[in-house]
Amino acid sequence: MSYAEQALDQLEKGQLDDFKKAYNSALRHDDDETLFSLAEELYGLGFLNQSRRIYEKLLKQYPDEDELRTNLADIAIDEDKTDVALDYLNQIKPESTAYVQALLVSADLYQTQGLFEVSQQKLLEAQDIAPEEPVITFALAELYFNMREFNRAVPLYLDLIKSGVTNLSRVNLVERLGVSYAEAGRFEQAIGYLEQIHEGDMTPDVQFELGFTYLQLEDFERAAKVLGALQESDSQYSSLYPYLGMALEQLNQLDEALKMVQVGLGVDQYNEKLWRQAAHLATRVSDESLAETYLKKATELDPDDLTAALELSNLYVKQGRWQETIDLLLADTASDDLDPQFFWNLATAYTHEEQYEQAAKYYDEARPYFMDQPDFLKPAIYFYREMGQTDVVRELLSRYVQLVPDDEEMQYMWEAYEN
Length: 419
Hints:
Layout: H1 3-13, H2 16-29, H3 32-44, H4 48-61, H5 66-78, H6 82-90, H7 99-112, H8 116-129, H9 134-146, H10 150-162, E1 167-168, E2 171-172, H11 173-183, H12 187-194, H13 204-216, H14 220-233, H15 240-250, H16 254-267, H17 272-284, H18 288-301, H19 306-318, H20 322-330, H21 341-352, H22 356-366, H23 374-386, H24 390-403, H25 408-418
Antiparallel strand pairs: 1-2
Keywords: Repeat, TPR repeat
TPR repeats: 272-305
Pfam families: TPR_16 (PF13432)
């Protein structure tokens, strides 16, 4: 048994002192090929210092062996020694047999730094040199996947699968392809691959994508089943709760939908969208008090959340809480991106508070947006009639009777104005 074999044996037994002795003996006495194999084994086990010492020793003896430089660069990357890694990689010239590997290592390094375009350049250069090499195709696919450019990742994963490569670097390519299709919004294609993943290989992320894809395909029963199973196995997976709530709501299981969203709030209490969803479901189960509590929480978390403010104002309008409506919405009217419903709600509230000048201002703001909504037109007609704005009344009446021809009261008023 070589000293290298003894060292690995001692490691397997957990006898670290004996491992150190055997390792040092291997450095002094084992042949270079055995040492190289030992360095590879130790690197795989995470013993970076010991692996690096061997590669550095061999590089002194074989300065033209660029594979040693790529291995040392890999170790330097793992140790966050970027400059050291680049120094090794820059020593490898295009004519070297290790140049393609150096490009791959460089691409990995630049990707960890968020320099995706540089990483892409390195990989495309490697692909030009070795176009049939599956490792390069895989590296490009993974780069695009991490960049969220899923439509560019899809054909690369597909090429690998068609060539018979379904697993590489402990990555399930069928899973990756299914997720890429789903993230690209190509749900019909996604489901065919995601359903191929065996239950034992189904990670929480893939399980989520499967449930999400069923939801997009409006297969709400399967979506609820998959996402419900994910919730049971990993209740801290916060992203599942909005979609599980949606699926259950579509199945008209409103109490269960609200319950699941409430559980989600316990996991992710700072998600204002989840608070809004809880409020929506509370409204659907006729618990307006709970809905108000949730909407107020959403606005507290994000004072700029105009959607939550609008939904809360809708609740106030429904309950006839006019001054609270005004107080809530006035703070937001300076925004350049207001939903026209803000103006409608303010117009309604000011009318009931008998502040007619302000009501007129907001009716004028709202009017262009709601000319096809009878629920807006009818109260607006009465308001403008009281204000004596005959031309506006005629315009709104004309539109209203087109939309609701069987409203006899409005038809009579229209005829009166026509005459």
